[in-house]
Design a protein that fits this description.
4 helices; 17% strand; alpha/beta; two-stranded antiparallel sheet; 7 strands; disordered N terminus; five-stranded mixed sheet; 211 residues
Length: 211
């Protein structure tokens, strides 16, 4: 599995991901995420409670989850060398009734996005991967909106790799993740947003909501 096509994009700046052989690297799991917003960080810039350099006894847990960078000897989710834009803040809790559905769990094909657009709602299709740090920032941006707006539907599609059926169908001309496709309340395509670009995403949501 190739971990990246080229680069992950964060707010207009390119952030290099793991580019060496996949066998040396692992998954970016949620095991490193802080348990609370006020969690203490250690000298390694990681939540102290989860840092394997502060707590070597935690390493087997990360390794069992395949969250391990063999090249640098730390969890993939704590490796700033491979992922300079790592974030450890816990995601907001989704309110009951928030309209979030995962359409593709393991890169399986979803032939037609329009068929999943929700009538009367703005539908955001989020192409992401667990190894993409900026993809988590999309969730951090979208979850508060889902909690306050009943007219937004969030549909997540896990690419897994650039060779998956999902990626081959929808991401042929896409170089970076995340990749977001926004449909209006009328069920028609509004625009696509490449990379984590909150301003562009908000503009697309506003345009979609006006339809």
């Amino acid at each position: 599995m190739r971990l990246m096509k080229t680069l992950c994009v964060l707010g207009g700046l390119a952030a290099t991901g793991c580019a060496t052989t996949p066998s040396a690297h692992g998954n970016l799991s949620s095991l490193s995420v802080a348990s609370s917003q006020d969690a203490a960080f250690c000298e390694h810039r990681v939540p102290q409670e989860n840092c394997t350099r502060c707590h070597p006894e935690l390493a087997p847990r990360f390794q069992a989850a395949k969250d391990w960078c063999g090249e640098h000897g730390v969890p993939e989710s704590q490796c700033f060398t491979c992922h300079p834009d790592l974030s450890f803040e816990p995601l907001p809790v989704l309110a009951p009734g928030a309209d979030l559905v995962k359409l593709s769990h393991e890169g399986e094909d979803v032939p037609e996005l329009a068929a999943h657009a929700v009538p009367g709602k703005v539908t955001v299709f989020d192409f992401y991967a667990d190894w993409c740090p900026p993809c988590r920032k999309v969730d951090a941006h979208m979850f508060p909106l889902l909690n306050t707006r009943q007219d937004i539907a969030y549909r997540k599609l896990n690419v897994v790799s650039w060779d998956s059926p999902l990626a081959k169908r929808h991401l042929g001309q896409v170089e970076n993740l995340p990749y977001l496709v926004v449909y209006g309340k009328d069920g028609k395509l509004v625009r696509a947003v490449k990379g984590f670009d909150p301003a562009a995403l908000d503009a697309a949501l506003a345009e979609a909501g006006a339809r």
